[in-house]
Amino acid sequence: MTAAPLVPHEPARAAEPGQATSLPTLSQLNTASAADFMARLATVWEHAPWVAQACVAQRPFDSVDALHRAMLGHVRSLPEPELLALLAGHPDLAGAAARSGHMAPDSVAEQSALSLDQLDADDAARWDHLNTAYRARFGFPFILCVKRHSRISALRCFEARLQNDRSSELQAALDEITRITRLRLADRIANHGLSGLSGRLSTHVLDVSRGRPAAGLHLSLHECPRADGPADERPLARAVTDAQGQTPAPLIDGVPLRIGRYELRFRIGDYYRDLGQVSSDWPFLDVVPVAFGIDEPEADYHVPLTITPWAFSTYRGQ
Amino acid sequence: MTAAPLVPHEPARAAEPGQATSLPTLSQLNTASAADFMARLATVWEHAPWVAQACVAQRPFDSVDALHRAMLGHVRSLPEPELLALLAGHPDLAGAAARSGHMAPDSVAEQSALSLDQLDADDAARWDHLNTAYRARFGFPFILCVKRHSRISALRCFEARLQNDRSSELQAALDEITRITRLRLADRIANHGLSGLSGRLSTHVLDVSRGRPAAGLHLSLHECPRADGPADERPLARAVTDAQGQTPAPLIDGVPLRIGRYELRFRIGDYYRDLGQVSSDWPFLDVVPVAFGIDEPEADYHVPLTITPWAFSTYRGQ
Amino acid sequence: MTAAPLVPHEPARAAEPGQATSLPTLSQLNTASAADFMARLATVWEHAPWVAQACVAQRPFDSVDALHRAMLGHVRSLPEPELLALLAGHPDLAGAAARSGHMAPDSVAEQSALSLDQLDADDAARWDHLNTAYRARFGFPFILCVKRHSRISALRCFEARLQNDRSSELQAALDEITRITRLRLADRIANHGLSGLSGRLSTHVLDVSRGRPAAGLHLSLHECPRADGPADERPLARAVTDAQGQTPAPLIDGVPLRIGRYELRFRIGDYYRDLGQVSSDWPFLDVVPVAFGIDEPEADYHVPLTITPWAFSTYRGQ
Amino acid sequence: MTAAPLVPHEPARAAEPGQATSLPTLSQLNTASAADFMARLATVWEHAPWVAQACVAQRPFDSVDALHRAMLGHVRSLPEPELLALLAGHPDLAGAAARSGHMAPDSVAEQSALSLDQLDADDAARWDHLNTAYRARFGFPFILCVKRHSRISALRCFEARLQNDRSSELQAALDEITRITRLRLADRIANHGLSGLSGRLSTHVLDVSRGRPAAGLHLSLHECPRADGPADERPLARAVTDAQGQTPAPLIDGVPLRIGRYELRFRIGDYYRDLGQVSSDWPFLDVVPVAFGIDEPEADYHVPLTITPWAFSTYRGQ
After folding, report:
1. Does the beta carbon of C318 lie under 8 angstroms from any beta carbon of chain B?
2. Nearest C-alpha of chain C: how many angstroms from B159?
3. B306/C315 CB distance under 8 A
4. What is the nearest CA distance from C186 to chain B, expressed in angstroms?
């Protein structure tokens, strides 16, 4: 039995829209012409190429972290009216800009991963209502690093943040922009060396009726679109365990884990049927769902399973 | 926190259609007039009142089991043509009789519990096809004790039995009628003393992060309408655990367990939120589904759960 | 395979030394002559028959609890010098009185269960030292309800209480005497109705490789004489699990559980060898020890075990 | 909290008695003088330097495996009388030679690891009896690769093999010599590349009450000198878990695991006391023993533990 190819949780880190696929290193950027530097980094800050521009003369940078800190320094030193103008450059989440095509290419890619561009009329109205209420209350758009969120967690977060006071929200907006721009730098610079950007989800199946790894067991990972409802039938990933009871690769790796609710489904019935340990049409354990939440996008989640034909056990491991 | 009333898996054993609710005891039936005896038992064998009639003169019976054995003796001694006529008296499952209202009241009640009278056009066509194929192959209708089945297991069983040879199916039909008629006797006689008619499903939740029963934990039981799909959102039963971590009553009791696939959902996130052990919007464990199959309708299924905020474990216990 | 008879943790509640085995009920004591009342209850309070005497005229009592409260009332209203005299009537634990035979019969029976009368010279010296130090510090002997203690927990408790201040120790001594005298009343009165006097220890073994109770599994219960050392090889109890995976009776019942450390040993290797699931001379699991502490003498301790030939799991259940 | 240094299960692979510590590589042996080759390898076969001698002219060898196969070829082609002479060159286990100092240095080192040279009079008599009976029955001494055995498993194996027929024992003796000589080659040649010579024992502790590895937990590994008795109080190894819940190194590695019975002791009470989750003097879980058998000396044994203050679970993992 061989492993099915792992369906990635999302496309491998894509090349920038409209750019060549080969990324420059930091040392190349340090010595590049101002024009080349800007060609690569102008869009890191949404509709604010001046942030990259202000860094040109500060080169060289020791690390991508140092470059990011320099960018952040320019932003933080802005007087409030100009800071608000910078925030205002961000598109509404699932807003009219997204639906009409007037959004920066990075934001297009980021929002589309949550299908925020494909809402039905009711949901679109709900987002529009939130966007309107938020702008009315705070005077700038709701900003969220959507790569760390599922659609439902983005929505919950939006509703919660709408209750904050203005100064908390100003800080929250800057925190989210910090995350967004760090991820964008990581997408634009080879060997970026930035840490704390991505999480990992993995599993491991032990057959404790036989004292060995469960090899050849099929499993799939699903997202739960609602906080308290069934998982999406389309899997985010599929895999078959190897001789060590592990999947050939983590189920999610190299990207932030989207905050939300997930379900792993382990085909235990088929596994024991193949071994001749189970024959019933309705075995006690067949497709075993393990539902769990993720709220630390940059953490390791290891969700191992120990099984017999009649029992299973799971925990958050590491 | 108090337990919500347990929603029963199916209506409490109903009185016979058209009869008074008070059931006679065996000793009353032993001494009743032939007419009263027949009024109670004529319909135990579908469209075959002669089976009860043949037992009138054999009274008294020591036990309901003895009465049933006497009935069965009359049926088994039939020459094959008359046996086939008796089988032919049974309605098709989900067949035209069910849909046109020409079915014995017991069969109506039994089939309706699976909603076999409410199939959509596609499913009705599938059942019609199976009924037609089965009659064509064996010369008698497909007979199944539907009280032991969910709709999906009835369908699977139908498809499997269609592959048998005629002599196996004749035996299978008699076995099912034996089950059907024992259950019908149990429905008509007070203190019937018949055993092996019903199963039980129960659960028990231990909080092993605190070394004590998990009290006040909400849970629900759901049926999975397909062999490999999500559970029905409407619960078969709801309960809240008591101080011993148990539900006030078994989740199913006093009836056969319907063969099929089920899901228990334990609201672990709420439980630990109430205790202050969990605060995240997306706790690792929130609503925890435990999916399991049942293939022994008359057995005890105990499905205990041990929990912490980060781990759970389950097994078929007893 | 049948269960070996359960070896009791301690002799069944013995008749009073020097008394007939048939105990009077409270209503018999309520109407008995003063002499008969005293014959039964004079020794409940060590060397203080006046406590029972003071209750004679207060009869009738509604409950044994009411009788005990009356006794306690007399003791609590004593001026301190007389209270100290009453405390002084108690023997040293493992002291010279125990070793020379000058101790009230109840105390003899209670101390001998911990073999405090059979210490070797070193241990005797250690107890003598503690007794001397305690009397020197507080002016009365160390009082402990030894039925709730193992030898090691009694010793630890002694060392800890020696650090208390005098007023705490006076209270502690009264608390212990309250426990001692309640247990003595329970030993002298039939159907006493006192609650909270005893605990229970039980186990249950589930074979999760087969989804059923582990029947016919041999196990034994051992006390650990030291806090951090091996268990005593002589078992307190032996049992064989029945068809439900339980022992025919709780391992300890009807008496306080002695505070301390215990070990259950489950002969899992033999169990799976009998089933043909294990053949090695050195199976992964053979005799499986489960060590646990008890610090609530009046509580239920349920220590279930789930097993496969390659895994086991246990928890404090109920 | 830092890890105590790991006490090795046995001395690091020692230099040959009387030799320099730096081992030659195979390619050095391939080109060495015959005298140097013999100086290194003459004693691989007990009292049979001719085996190495016969290989001198066959050089060069591609691998240590090839060298071993060549040696084995010479032995297997011996006529039976000479083969028996070679077997006869092996010392009795725990025999007179061991006790009188007439044993080859390798055998001295191997037997002393089981303390077979330090038996008390009763045990020595038992081994002498077995050695005498074995020689009388088969005409050659009992040969066992003692590096794969604990004293008790060696004894059990001896008693079992005494029941075999002569031809099985001749084969068994050759199999054991094959193991012994492969291990001796591995001790004499740098970068030997031989596989299947050693096993590994490791553990891992997860705190499932907190959803993270149990760091700073003290544990020790003990051997059980009898098949059904307590573990030896002196540990084979001690360790403290690191931030990943693992020990800094496997508990045993790089040598065969000795067949027998072991006990891991996990100081769970101290771990939770340090965290403030447990305060009782007699916590439910304090020092938790996990006893297990090893019968595959060259296998990986991973014995993980999941814990809460009230529950634990273990299994043979990998």
Report:
1. yes
2. 29
3. yes
4. 28
Cβ–Cβ contact C211 with B under 8 A: yes
Please report residues of A whose CB lies closer than 8 A to that of D212. 316, 318
Counting every residue written for chain D, the total comes to 318
pLDDT in tens, A235-271: 999 999 999 999 999 999 999 999 999 999 999 999 9
d(CA B40, CA A251): 63
On the question of a cis peptide bond just before residue D5, with omega within 30 degrees of 0, the verdict is no
- Which of C206, C277, C308, C313 is best to mutate for the A interface (most A CBs within 10 A)? C308
A118 part of contact set with chain D, CB < 8 Å? no
Q: What is the pLDDT of residue A302?
A: 96
Which residues on chain C are in Cβ contact (under 8 Å) with A209? 208-209, 308-310
List, as ranges, residues 240-259 from C with C-beta within 8 Å of D. 259
Whether residue C315 and residue D311 make contact (CB cut-off 8 A), yes or no, is yes
Which of A89, A35, A45, A91 shows the shortest CA–CA distance to A67?
A45
Task: Yes or no: say if B104 and B43 are a contact pair by the CB < 8 Å rule.
Answer: yes
Residue D2, pLDDT above cutoff 50 = no
Query: Mean pLDDT for each 10-residue chunk of chain B (318 residues)?
Result: 36 42 92 96 94 97 97 94 90 75 79 77 88 94 95 93 95 96 96 95 97 97 87 95 97 96 97 96 96 96 97 93
C255 touches C10 (CB < 8 A):
yes
Q: What subunits touch chain B, counting only 3 or more CB pairs under 8 A?
A: A, C, D
| Predicted confidence (pLDDT) at residue A278 exceeds the cutoff of 90 | yes
Residue A98, pLDDT above cutoff 80: no
Phi and psi based region of residue B239 (left: phi greater than 0; alpha: psi -120 to 50; beta: remaining)? beta
Determine, for residues A311 and C284 on separate chains, whether the beta-carbon distance falls below 8 Å: no
Within 10 A of D36 (CB to CB), how many other CB atoms are there?
Answer: 13
Neighbours of chain D (3+ CB pairs under 8 A): A, B, C
Q: How many other C-beta atoms are found inside a 10 Å radius of the C-beta of residue B302?
A: 16
3-class state of residue D242 by DSSP: coil
Q: Does A318 touch chain D (CB under 8 A)?
A: yes
Sheet of strand B260-267, all strands in order from the earlier edge strand to the far edge: B237-240, B218-223, B260-267, B287-294
Q: Is A150 on the interface with B (CB under 8 A)?
A: no
Of A211, A306, A310, the CB nearest to C210: A310
Extract the runs of DSSP E, i.e. beta strands, from chain B: 199-207, 212-213, 218-223, 237-240, 252-255, 260-267, 287-294, 300-308, 311-315
Closest-CA distance, D311 to chain A, in angstroms, reads 13
Question: Mean pLDDT of successive 10-residue segments in chain C (318 residues)?
Answer: 36 42 93 96 94 97 97 94 91 75 79 77 88 94 95 93 95 96 96 95 97 97 87 95 97 96 97 96 96 96 97 93
* Paired residues of D200 in beta bridges: D253, D300
d(Cα D86, Cα B285) in Å, to the nearest integer?
Answer: 66
Most C CBs within 10 Å, among A207, A308, A313, to test the C interface: A308
Residue D6 confidence (pLDDT): 35
